[in-house]
Design brief:
This protein has 8 helices and 10 strands. It has 296 residues and is α/β, with parallel strands linked by helices. α5 links the parallel β4 and β5. The structure holds pyridoxal-5'-phosphate (PLP).
């Protein structure tokens, strides 16, 4: 893990112990290295822009800043919130997500996080155990690899197939999984490929995960941001086939990534988490303990 150490100039530097830094370099890190080495004033078009608020044509709904301002001025929320989030926030998220599901989520299914990034980290921290591996899409979102590396979870990649609209190579998933595989990650709508999966493809993913006895981490941070006629179908629709951990945030759809509000939701209408091999990690108490560990 990272530690401060002195070198022979007496300067202190950060040393990583036990973390494979070659696999933990992020896109933002590379971009910042590049920008530091650009010495002329040419203008650049960034193709890696994930912040919708950077463009003035995209703004959030005007009711949102009013509501936040009202909440701040009321002084009602100046105290510590419960670790899993304010009940009214959890209820609002449960109601919002339930609109697209064939069943109703309860407040107990929802945990509020600091953006989707923390939801990813919480999900991987909960699944970590000696020898565990996780299946990630390639191309994918690098935070998963970074977080898995810090949790000592082995990463195995399955390809997304460009010639078929970046669908998941399910044969590869079946070949990669073994008894130590804890989950597969599905990013839909997808970053970086922009894929929007059909109901049928998500159903096939759910059935494959069910056969393999792994759960699905559904990253839906881009939920509802689709182009053309393709509807967004949440993975939680198949929660009766396979337990789904749905991760999301208000960053993209509401164009406020700086507000850092996300969620980690168990979409599991049949209570399969209760019988699943990761059961022990998924009790509410464990979640609270985990959050406390992450913050101290
Ligand atoms: C696929 C994916 N998941 C998660 C995140 C992180 O979302 P947040 O800004 O809410 O932490 C991003 C941000 O770009 C993303 O592209």
């Amino acid at each position: 893990m990272a530690a401060m150490e002195s070198n022979n100039n007496g300067r202190r530097s950060i040393i990583n112990h036990g973390v494979d830094t070659s696999s933990t370099i992020t896109i933002k890190g590379i971009l910042s290295l590049l920008m530091q080495n650009v010495d002329d004033k040419r203008s650049f078009i960034s193709l890696g822009m994930g912040d919708p608020s950077a463009h003035s044509c995209f703004t959030t709904t005007h009711v949102a800043p009013h509501a936040v301002s009202h909440a701040l001025q009321s002084s009602t929320f100046n105290g510590y919130a419960p670790t899993s989030g304010l009940p009214q926030t959890r209820r609002a998220i449960a109601e919002y997500l339930s609109r697209d599901l064939p069943y109703k989520l309860s407040i107990d299914d929802v945990f509020v996080t600091s953006g989707c990034t923390q939801a990813i980290d919480v999900a991987l921290a909960m699944l970590a155990r000696p020898g565990a591996n996780i299946l990630l899409p390639r191309p994918g979102f690098p935070i998963y690899e970074l977080s898995a590396s810090f949790r000592h979870i082995e990463v195995r990649y399955f390809d997304l197939l460009p010639e078929k609209g970046w669908v998941v190579d399910l044969d590869a998933v079946e070949a990669l999984a073994d008894q130590d595989t804890v989950a597969m990650v599905v990013i839909n709508p997808g970053n970086p490929c922009g894929n929007v999966y059909s109901y049928q493809h998500l159903k096939e993913i759910a059935e494959a995960a069910n056969r393999l006895k792994i759960l699905v981490i559904a990253d839906e941070v881009y939920g509802h941001l689709t182009f053309g006629g393709k509807p967004f179908v949440p993975m939680g629709v198949f929660g009766s086939t396979v337990p789904v951990l749905t991760l999301g945030s208000i960053s993209k759809r509401w164009i406020v990534p700086g507000w850092r509000l996300g969620w980690f939701v168990t979409t599991d209408p049949c209570g399969m988490f209760k019988n699943h091999k990761v059961l022990l990690y998924l009790s509410c108490e464990c979640f609270l303990e985990l959050i406390i560990c992450l913050f101290v």
